[in-house]
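Hi W., the zinc ion complex you wanted:
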Amino acid sequence: MPQFFDTHAHLDFDEFRSDLPAVLDRARAVGVDRFVSIGTDLAASRRALAIAETHQGVFAVAGWHPGHAEEAPPDIRAELRALASHERIVAIGECGLDFYRLPSRMGQGTVDDDARIRERQADLFVQQLEVASELGLNVVIHTRDSFPETVELFRPYASRVRAVFHCFVGTPAEMEVVLGIGSLVSYTGIVTFKNGNAVRETLAATPMDGLMLETDCPFLAPVPHRGRRCEPAFIADIASTVAGLKHCSPEELGTATCATARSFFKRIF
Ligand SMILES: [Zn+2]
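Structure:
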């Protein structure tokens, strides 16, 4: 059986509260035996760490999602540093920029409100890059409608910190930019979607050692599970699409992506 990691899951979300052990067992039964549970704020990061400490093969990432930037305290660095020194924390994130839901776009504010939030997101992102750089950890990046701005903020750190641009849906040229600064992309169930031709084209162009697999569960359930809660076992469905596009066996894909994940999330064992 091929081996896979789910490198981006939100196991602390309410959706998994009642049946997490069964969810993890279903994943292991199809070869998914390492799980990276991603924090979206400090409280969620602590919950992810608690899950990592009590479940076999689970590791955590600590950070603050840009979509919740307004709720963040002015400076999260001291708390993040303390949390991230734990051996089961394998990266910082998810962090980055998200310009998709800015107030003026949602009909809830002005362009001045947008500017304030963009600045807040940028400040929070840079704080997390600083902590990652200090601690020698890599970062999990969330970027939506903000690719050039995200790369611009990250670039000064790229010699010391690697990033994974998670849930990658960019163009082949954007993928080349990410790989060109020594970072990685990871692909979700979007690669299985009927309307996923653009991301499949980017995936086909991505070198085998430049990519990882993730579910982003409970979101983005792949075909044939669309519309249901996503869970780590569905990596197997994502992997069969990816292996087809990469013209390799699921075993070869598993070996390559697990090796990439182990070198990126250095503390995974
Ligand atoms: Zn996520």
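The pocket of zinc ion is lined by residues 8, 10, 38, 94, 216 (CB under 6 Å).

W.
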